[in-house]
Specification:
397 residues; alpha+beta; Butyryl-Coa Dehydrogenase, subunit A, domain 1; Butyryl-CoA Dehydrogenase, subunit A, domain 2; Butyryl-CoA Dehydrogenase, subunit A, domain 3; seven-stranded mixed beta sheet; 14% strand; globular
């Protein structure tokens, strides 16, 4: 497990932190209104995607820890979640292709990612949300290894601007089973892309709806085997969950530093407000949350890359910890700054953007359900592998 960045990783982190600092401060203060194509192009030119794409498909063969160092540097300086969420979504697509794509899929789609094209992953249905097994997006087999895709997906990051999409669907007549993953281009016949969503914050992350009306597909569109996509999907999205936790922790770092300085300068009752215990509590709560989110995220990445059985659980814990840190921290910052914090500006923009972490990557309720399910599974497994003597002790009297 990584407990310290290597010299190369520190250099990577510094390089991508510099890219984050190039972003327009005035736009960030009041909230960027459109996708930041300029910074996206800088990230691609700096080799962000080459880090995690295998050499045989155009990458440079580095690993996910190097990419994590780059993401961390960017999160510590960019000051807005929108583009970071775009990076995380694109990283999930790279992982999906690397793990489950055919050679022809890897050559085509990884090449397009290296060229800077945006992808999208369509998971949630308007009627069932992220209850993947209940999806009403259906994949109907036809003759000669062909299929037809029908359904609706919503709240899809990059839907209005993506050039290709990974769609989560279900084989028809398979009840709650038969989850499948398919890849298709944004100009596929039968695919309709809706208008960009109007949201409270993160306006630089374009999201929208997609409708699939008898979209013609063949076996080459399938990512992995038909009907075997659920386990693969969990592996793909788990990476995103831990990264949500990590970027949430680093996004609040510069806000905390500025709040610390403000608290030392702002006086009430003839003393700096930092002398008051309730101000100290707000600052220390943010620090405790940020450190907790960072380190559980590192642990989750280590477990996921090693294939540890508890990895999915730790990834959900990472996401929940990071979300709580950034949302509660943003609220505390607004209170700490008083009326200044409530006025339109950097603090209110940060609060609106931070609230996205309540739902991005799954709600708190969904993740608690996932954590409890993993706990139940691991508990049952531990009882099965216990020695006969221990099993006897575990039986009720």
């Amino acid at each position: 497990m990584h407990l310290e960045w290597t010299p190369e990783q520190r250099q990577t982190r510094t390089a991508f932190a510099a890219i984050g600092k190039m972003a327009d401060r005035d736009e960030l203060r009041l909230g960027r209104r459109a996708f930041d194509q300029q910074t996206w192009d800088r990230l691609s030119a700096a080799g962000l995607w080459r880090m995690i794409v295998p050499r045989e498909f155009g990458g440079d063969g580095r690993d996910w820890w190097g990419f994590t160092a780059a993401l961390e540097g960017l999160a510590a300086t960019l000051r807005t979640p929108g583009l970071l969420l775009s990076v995380i979504a694109q990283a999930g697509m790279v992982r999906a292709l690397d793990l489950y794509g055919s050679d022809s899929q890897k050559r085509e789609y990884l090449g397009r990612i290296l060229n800077g094209e945006l992808s999208a992953t369509a998971i949630a249905d308007p009627d069932t949300g992220t209850d993947v097994r209940a999806t009403s997006s259906l994949l109907t087999p036809g003759p000669n290894e062909t299929f037809r895709l029908n359904g609706v997906k919503y709240n899809i990051a990059h839907a209005p601007v993506a050039s290709f999409i990974l769609v989560v669907c279900k084989l028809s007549d398979h009840g709650r089973e038969g989850i499948s993953l398919v890849l298709l281009d944004a100009d596929s016949p039968g695919l309709t892309i809706g208008a960009q969503d109007r949201k409270l914050g993160n306006l630089d992350l374009p999201t929208g709806q997609m409708r699939f009306d008898d979209v013609p597909l063949h076996y080459g569109h399938l990512l992995g085997e038909p009907g075997a996509g659920l386990r693969n999907l969990v592996n793909i999205v788990s990476m995103g969950r831990l990264y949500y936790g990590l970027v949430a922790a680093w996004l609040i770092e510069p806000m905390l530093a500025e709040a610390f300085d403000f608290s030392q300068k702002r006086t009430t009752f003839d003393v700096p407000i930092i002398e008051h215990q309730y101000i100290q509590k707000k600052l220390t709560d943010i620090r405790i949350g940020a450190e907790s989110a960072k380190w559980v995220s590192y642990a989750a990445l280590h477990q996921l890359l090693c294939g540890a059985p508890e990895a999915a659980m730790t990834c959900s814990i990472s996401k929940l910890t990071g979300a709580a840190t950034i949302v509660e921290g943003a609220m505390d910052l607004m209170k700490l700054y008083g009326s200044k914090g409530y006025h339109e500006g950097e603090i209110t923009t940060f609060l609106r953007d931070a609230l996205a972490f309540c739902s991005v990557g799954g709600t708190e309720e969904m993740h608690r359900r996932n954590i409890f399910g993993q706990m139940t599974r691991l508990h049952a497994k531990s009882k099965k592998t216990a020695s006969p003597a221990i099993q006897k002790d575990l039986q009720p009297a």
